[in-house]
Amino acid sequence: MDDEEGIRSMLTMALEFLGHQVTAAATGRQALQAVTRYDPDLILLDVNLPDLNGFEVCRTLRDRGNAVPVLFLTGLGGVDDRVRGLDMGGDDFVTKPFELKEVAARVRALLRRAGGGHPDRNRLRAGAVQLDADAHQVWADGRPVDLTTTEFALLRYLMENPGRVLSRRQIQERVWNHRDEGSGVVDTYIYYLRRKLGEPGQSLIRTVRGVGYQLCAN
């Protein structure tokens, strides 16, 4: 979460390209609402947010018992500021201006650390389909499948919720990050996904008429 739209958009695109699902927020209160709604694996948090600053957002999360890893983005390079952030419950810092590859590396490190008890959290399997979020690769019946960023995010969301019926609105909000892409975009991308996955995709992704879609793990 960052208050500068340019930085927010750049980070969102870069992290989505690497296979992460991203929800962006422009203010501290929006960030807290997004955490409640989406239960993220990690928060990238600008210190200088309007209304509540990043330190206050982190402290609020910790007071609520939320232990999600927090990576601060800050233009404040002093030791005292870093100590304050860590004391508030932060896990790591990146100082502006930053290199995207450094941010990506720190995100990977924090996710690995947070997933210590779940080493395969980013490797998903459903039937004959496998997804590796770290490598941004998908296989169907053992053959590699070339997916676009959006197709990959859609498949990952379905595979993270096996057996659950997901409405078109839920899918659009998660995969398209609240952007209104029109009522038929989800159906279109499900079609693309099934076609690329081949036979496994036809049996794996079930249409629930009038509601949405369900991933059938068995």
Average pLDDT for all residues: 83
Provide the succession of SSEs.
Answer: HHEHEHEHEEEEHEHHHEE
The order of strands across the largest sheet is: 4-5-6-7
Q: What general form does the structure show?
A: elongated
Strand content: 15-25%
Organism: Streptomyces akebiae
InterPro entries: CheY-like_superfamily, OmpR/PhoB-type_DNA-bd, Sig_transdc_resp-reg_receiver, WalR-like, WH-like_DNA-bd_sf
Protein name: Response regulator transcription factor
Keywords: DNA-binding, Phosphoprotein
Helices and strands in order, then pairings?
Layout: H1 5-17, H2 28-38, E1 43-46, H3 54-63, E2 70-74, H4 79-87, E3 92-95, H5 100-114, E4 123-126, E5 129-132, E6 137-140, E7 143-145, H6 149-159, E8 165-167, H7 168-175, H8 185-197, H9 199-204, E9 205-208, E10 212-215
Helix pairs in contact: 2-3, 6-8
Description:
By secondary structure, the chain is an alpha+beta fold. It contains nine helices and ten strands. The strands form three sheets. Strands 4-5-6-7 form a four-stranded antiparallel beta sheet. Strands 1-2-3 form a three-stranded parallel beta sheet, with helices on both faces. β4 (about 125) and β5 form a beta hairpin. The radius of gyration is 18 Å and the shape is elongated. The termini are far apart. The mean pLDDT is about 85.
